[in-house]
Specification:
single chain, 352 residues, alpha/beta, globular
């Protein structure tokens, strides 16, 4: 409860001024991936590496002020020390409220075992998002690996069976030109396999061209039927029940996603490099996945993010974000804290 209140205070404060330090961290643990996605070419990097566990410990011993930590990749469960990473976080980051991570769900047995051990650390809240990008054949085609749909479902169902009030699991659907008219069909396919499924278990993301995804030349992922996609999103919104704060924020994410689709511009003043930042496996700090401009390197700053945060470079890149001098995007990695940092506009804006 105390960590939740601290998180709420930080989020509320970001409505009045940029936080002195970010409360959300997205940390890339590995560049390796065992899927072959059509919308992302990370898997093609044959020289992908992992961040060293020793460096991770150095970092969290010095930079331990986060309320929300998202561990990502690549596929983080290709690492054999995900539990050790989480234990380092638990031992050093006392205010952490949310620990979240995505997975393609392919390594079912390992994921279930690792999550079980992680839950034994008694974090305030752990949330796992299992990627699912369509009905069976579509998902397998988009993910480039036979059997990936079955494994994702098996992983989701296994995690759903976990009885722990501090844990939640959902599906993450990445919208691209390949599947933009298949959100409803995907929901039907999930319900056929898992009848207890509800829309609170589904979160939507939009595919982007970004250097970090190595897909800048793949314009085929970009949605071409904006009216059709907005219609699908509206149906999703109309059927989603607002049962808790997370579902409300997710509803607002989709509301402003529709606005982004129409305009191509970030629909609220972005909080990247203020409330949040991205750290890659080489310890470079970026605003987010899509704006590939470095704000500094943590190895060059003794793994002390507060030291880097005070630098002129970080302030200059943040100024570019505030001015809209960036690629413009709207993804859950940044949209949630952007909504929380613009609550009056987010909650009372009437335009869909």
């Amino acid at each position: 409860m105390i960590n939740t209140l601290k998180f709420a205070a930080k989020a509320a404060g970001s409505n009045f001024a940029d936080p002195q330090l970010p409360y959300k961290l997205t940390m890339v643990l590995t560049g390796r991936c065992n899927n072959r996605c059509k919308s992302c070419n990370i898997w093609q990097n044959q020289n992908a590496n992992d961040s060293l566990i020793e460096d991770i410990e150095r970092f969290f011993k010095k930079s331990n002020f986060f309320s929300w930590i998202s561990l990502t990749g690549g596929e983080i469960f290709l690492r054999n020390d995900v539990f050790s990473v989480c234990k380092i976080i638990k031992d050093n980051v006392k205010d952490v409220c949310f620990l979240t991570f995505p997975t393609n769900g392919y390594l079912t047995e390992k994921i279930l075992a690792d999550v079980d051990r992680i839950l034994g650390l008694n974090f305030n809240k752990v949330v796992v998002s299992v990627s699912l990008d369509g009905p069976l054949d579509m998902h397998n085609t988009l993910r480039g690996v036979d059997g990936s749909w079955d494994r994702a479902l098996k992983t989701f169902c296994g995690l759903k069976a976990v009885k722990n009030r501090r844990f939640a699991v959902n599906f993450g659907f990445t919208i691209s030109n390949y599947n933009m008219r298949s959100i409803g069909k995907t929901i039907e396919s999930i319900k056929a396999a898992y009848p207890k499924f509800s829309l609170k278990d589904l979160h939507l993301n939009l595919a982007f061209n970004a250097e970090r995804y190595s897909n800048m030349d793949n314009k085929g992922i970009l949605c071409t039927d904006s009216d059709g996609l907005i219609s699908e999103l509206t149906t999703y919104q109309e059927n989603k029940k607002l049962l808790d704060p997370i579902s409300v924020i997710d509803y607002l994410h989709v509301k402003f996603l529709k606005r982004y689709i129409k305009s191509g511009r970030t629909p609220l003043p972005c909080m990247s490099l203020a409330s949040s930042c991205l750290v890659d496996v080489d310890w470079n700090v970026y605003p987010c996945f899509n704006f590939n401009v470095k704000a500094g390197n943590l190895k060059e700053n003794d793994f002390d993010l507060a030291k880097l945060w005070a630098s002129g470079i970080r302030r200059a890149v943040r100024a570019r974000v505030k001015a809209g001098d960036c690629p413009h995007c709207w993804t859950p990695c940044e949209s949630f804290q952007t909504i929380l940092g613009n609550m009056p506009r987010a909650f009372f804006s009437k335009r869909a």
